[in-house]
Amino acid sequence: MSRKSKGLDAERELIHKFWKMGWAAIRCAGSGSIKYPVPDVLAGSSTRQIAIECKTNQATRQYFTKKEIFELKQFSEIFGSESWVAIKFPKKQWFFINPEDLDETENSYVISIEKAQIKGLLFEEMIS
Amino acid sequence: MSRKSKGLDAERELIHKFWKMGWAAIRCAGSGSIKYPVPDVLAGSSTRQIAIECKTNQATRQYFTKKEIFELKQFSEIFGSESWVAIKFPKKQWFFINPEDLDETENSYVISIEKAQIKGLLFEEMIS
To answer: Chain B window 71-90: which residues touch A at a Cβ cutoff of 8 Å?
Structure first.
């Protein structure tokens, strides 16, 4: 399976989880390819709306470009949503990370699987 | 141009208008083809989030299926958004209509161009 279709599958998996828990969630068309700062997924439950950048990962660290994180925060500020990154490491559950908890390097943001387990929220924690 | 690509163009046109006015807006992937009640467009401006069903029309009346309107309202109730239908009649501006202002028939909802002009809001009015 291509990296792109793995990413799509991951986004769809998250969307199913939201609807199953009584939230509404959609995949944003054109994320990563249009000129506006659009997240991968938007979810809401009447009083909370959240914008999510999703990643699946076969390694022990997850990198984000500075542009990805800047645009996620920019979208949320305009739209009125919370910003989260969601990461699926191999054989782990999804972790939801506040972008402020990512480590900044010269050219990117990064989080290790160890830090994700400490700082990240599980799906059920994030929506509660 | 196919009906589908005309619909896409219309959605993209609306999305540009929102961003131009300082709102964030996205096109929802899978609208009309996935199992969840997903609107065509979602837009937000920090305190308001709105879900939109978009139609372009070459006639003088616009029909909606009962399912379209039911799902638009259902999505908004769960997500926490307002529900609007946006209609573009030939040589007219976009009209934004509250779904409650559509006329119900046995099998559908409908609005005439005349009623859309009376009851509908222009883009600038709807976002203000």
So the answer is: 75, 77-81
